[in-house]
């Protein structure tokens, strides 16, 4: 039996001086990874690009490693090195292509590039020429994104080339996996089956977070979830099965009263319909709380016309007026007079406001909210170790 450890690690700004705080529940993160790992007979890795979706490679990778995750995907070699620094025995793939000047780093660090063009393949071959032991690489074949990767015909020709060094991993990336009814999914799975057969015996990887929920992904060897580990919703058409991982809260700085008929904020985009109590909170677009979630004055947003909400004193309260660089205002008229005071925290997303709902209010996706989180927050990482 393992002893229960209660553990809070804090980083970032001093909480006495910061405007907002982020709480990152590493137990929930580990539970999410396990849920994904148990869902599929394939091996499950973790995508930790953009500093683990904004949550910090240095905090996220060790707990995933401890939970049994052995393969990590970074976007850039610099990120891959940071994974290696905290998990030296991890297998780390670098997704975003290959430049010759990075080769010495690959030689020294055991990072594995994901090559995705004939140009990159020939560069890699040339740079490996002098070596007795050729360095391993993965191959990306594009089956429908038109982003990175060889096209399918190039991939098949490469598989048939008897003189070519073979990759240790074959990957493709799904363009529409979050929309299970989309016809492109089927086409991509079929193309990848054909490629997998041509690269017989080589490990294959197709599923991102939503891809794991497609039965067709079960036939491949390695899953590459990202956002669902961090609590984001994998599918747009079903309730989110993942536990929330990140809570964002901001401090109430002042409480003001606006008079019926007056306006609020830059551009005077909201006219008060009643006398209104307004909580001015210490968070803004400089903290990644996107201006497009403003309560008014954002003509480009159409999914959620009223903008974002906060949660405080047990109730949801709407944003009023425009989000500014460092401050956001909430209409708290519907709360009891003494329900909140300066210094209290208001939740912007977390257990009471889903990350993806906060994102939709800004006309975007949970991925963008997480990776935009600024560096002015006090950060708390909770890890009891009980799910390890
Ligand atoms: C970002 C990324 C993933 C992870 O996608 P999620 O939707 O976050 O699960 C997987 N594979 C590739 C190639 C990626 O770029």
Please explain how this structure is put together.
With 388 residues, this protein is an alpha/beta fold. The chain folds into two domains: 192 residues, Alpha-Beta Barrel (TIM Barrel); 138 residues, Lyase, Ornithine Decarboxylase, Chain A, domain 1, CATH 2.40.37.10. It contains ten helices and 20 strands. The strands form five sheets. Strands 1, 2, 12, 15, 18, 19 and 20 form a seven-stranded mixed sheet that branches. A seven-stranded parallel sheet has the order 4-5-6-7-8-9-10. A hairpin with a 2-residue loop joins strand 16 and strand 17. Helix 3 packs across helix 4 and helix 9 packs across helix 10. The protein is elongated and about 80 Å long. It starts with 7 loop residues before the first strand and ends in a 6-residue tail after the last strand. The site of pyridoxal-5'-phosphate has 11 residues, from loops.
Label this structure with key terms.
disordered N terminus, Lyase, Ornithine Decarboxylase, Chain A, domain 1, TIM Barrel, alpha/beta, 2 domains, seven-stranded parallel sheet, seven-stranded mixed sheet, 10 helices, binds pyridoxal-5'-phosphate, 388 residues, elongated
Describe the SSE topology.
Blueprint lengths: L7 E5 L7 E6 H14 L3 E2 L1 E2 L1 H5 L3 H11 L3 E4 L2 H10 L4 E4 L8 H7 L2 E4 L2 H11 L9 E3 L11 H9 L8 E3 L11 H16 L4 E3 L16 E2 L22 E13 L4 E2 L5 E2 L4 E6 L27 E4 L2 E4 L9 E4 L13 E5 L5 H7 L4 H7 L5 E5 L6
Parallel strand pairs: 2-20, 3-11, 4-5, 5-6, 6-7, 7-8, 8-9, 9-10
Antiparallel strand pairs: 1-20, 2-12, 12-15, 12-19, 13-14, 15-18, 16-17
Helix pairs in contact: 1-3, 3-4, 9-10
